[in-house]
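User: Thanks for the earlier help. One more: NADH-ubiquinone oxidoreductase chain 3. Can you show the sequence and predicted structure together?

Assistant: Of course, both are below.
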Amino acid sequence: MSLIMTIMLIASALSLVLIVVSFWLPLMTPDTEKLSPYECGFDPLGSARLPFSLRFFLVAILFLLFDLEIALLLPLPWANQLPDPILTVSWAALVLAILTLGLVYEWIQGGLEWAE
């Protein structure tokens, strides 16, 4: 079996497992808090001129960074068809290492803490 078929089989099996588990796990007990509209942590009926927390921007930027990282690493399984696949995998590992070091730095500095 080729590498591409193996990756597609694993991705399909993992997707199927996650879909099945997502239907079995949630507890369907709606209450007033769950049914109320939610806008970025603010009360939707209050004033619209409240100061906005920069922590939300930090989470959004972290999400974008790791979303872009996934987009960069998505074609990595096809690297075995390149003339030098080791170089491609090395660059991908370098990108992952830099992102991981940045995340660890933010974590140590307390940038990911919600409560101060």
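User: Great, one quick takeaway?

Assistant: The chain has a mean pLDDT of 80.
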